[in-house]
Amino acid sequence: MESPDRRFKMKWWGWGAEGVRFPLPTSEVTLEYFRSRFGLTRLEPAAELPLESVEIPPSRADAELVGALGEIVGPENCRTDHRERVLHSAGKSYKDLLQLRSLRLDRATDAVVYPRSEGEVVELLEYCGRERLAVVPFGGGSSVVGGIDPQQGDQRLVVTVDLAYLNQILEINKTSSTATVEAGIFGPELESQWRNQGFVLGNYPQSFEFSTLGGWIATRSSGQNCLRYGGIDKLVESVRIVTPAGTVETLHVPRRADGPDTMQMIVGSEGTFGIVVSATVRVRKLPADQDYFMFAMTNFHAAVDACRSMLQGDVCPALVRISDEEETAATLALGHQPAKGLRRVVRRGAKWLMQRRGLLPPSLSTVLVGLEGAAEQNRALRSTVRRHFASRDAFYLGRSPGQRWLETRFQLPYLRDELLANGLLVDTLETATTWSNVESLHAAVREAIKRVGSEHGNPVTVYAHLSHLYRDGAAIYFTLLGRQSPDDPVGQWWAIKNAAGDAIRQHGAVISHHHGVGTDHRAQTGRTDVEQRMLSQLKQAVDPDGIMNPGKLL
């Protein structure tokens, strides 16, 4: 059995694989962007920090408790050493990274256990219930909303349950196009094993390389190609979850109408009901062809209208992604990988833009379109898409920036470490709403963030893209950049977060489309009292003693 140490390829102090960096470019365009907006005259590279120097509270797990846990999972798989506790005590949110970079965590898990089977998970929950130990399920540790924060609630101490050993594909049913998989498997492991047999799941969240199937289910994840494949809630056929009240396995059926679907109550429960140990998911044949290309449009409004009409006209690519004018400008300035191709084609298109609208880059909105399927089908759909955008006065930027985006799509989060190293506040938040509300919500959230930034004396640049599109609406993904408050960066962040959340709720939108709730959003879900009581009673039914991931979701 493979050592669970394999999973910690990810930096403890930032995003991505250890030893891998994507530094900010040092071109004059990039430097001018940071000078003009944030007053930075030079850019410093991110430096690795010593994990041994992180201060954490001492473990409260005594020898008797460690011994008892070790009897269940094996002595070598119950750990209380400094490294394990640091690695399992913070996620990857801005707030988490601020704490880690300060070399101090106010809260830390008391012990980390690695069960080797579902039976051991059952034994662990029984023991933790008897001993009043809070249980925090752990997949890849990539939560950006405080989902793995080691809170103890009303329990004595905290035990983190890492599912690293539960990482096998148990069955592929080619007749039904389903696969049964253990929850601790990472995205790349899942994909590589399925591709060898000609199948694909198609769920590609930004965290794909460092997140697990169980984490996707627990947070109700939605990948970038949801137009073709659907979010994880559509991809899961059946779930097996161990709760303190017993094990539940939902029916293996394509759909059910025998009352409310209990599986959909488990999907998105964020570890507060139990530990997802395996799932049966719907797979598809590996697409024979991928075709990604990009358009430029004169503004965000035109791009939104063009994409909405395309989808509602039953033209449905695998992916459509709309960047607003500010994000297009940032992409060009920050030199993210697609920018090289964008700069070249923007130069070619500048004459067109000036002739048509009197505009110069970066007064542009860009639209990325991705097709996945048989080559012949993609060719026909590509022609349809190009005709549609031509009728909307769009400029075709070609395949080069689209293909480059596809090849580098998981690299963007690495830039956050470089920005943090230069004293910048950099964070993301996302929401979803209907088409009739998209542009007003986009404007309101941007204004709320900018207003609070100015009130704190640190102007904030806000840019956005529509990341997941549907016939009736879309998810808006915001990124914000500003100077960190030197006195209270966490307070500054909370003020911005709360203002954005207020704007989202005032516009009737959802507080999260795919990041989840965790601790950060639990006060801003907008649920009615009746809804809250329904969820609380469900938790009471499966976790009567409240040991499962206290402080999250509810």
Walk me through this protein's architecture:
This protein is α+β, with helices and mostly antiparallel strands. Helices cover 38% and strands 20% of the residues. It is built from 19 helices and 18 strands. It has helices at 28-38, 63-73, 82-87, 94-101, 118-131, 187-195, 213-219, 226-229, 232-235, 262-266, 300-312, 325-334, 338-357, 375-391, 399-408, 414-420, 435-455, 489-506, 529-542, and strands spanning 78-79, 111-113, 133-138, 157-162, 169-173, 178-182, 199-200, 236-243, 246-249, 275-282, 284-285, 289-297, 319-323, 365-373, 395-398, 424-434, 460-469, 473-483. Strands 15-12-14-13-17-18-16 form a 7-stranded antiparallel β-sheet, sandwiched between helices. Strands 5-6-10-8-9 form a 5-stranded antiparallel β-sheet. Helix 12 crosses helix 13 and helix 13 (338-357) runs antiparallel to helix 15 (399-408). The longest helix is centred in the last third of the chain and has 21 residues, at 435-455. The chain is globular. The two termini are 36 Å apart.
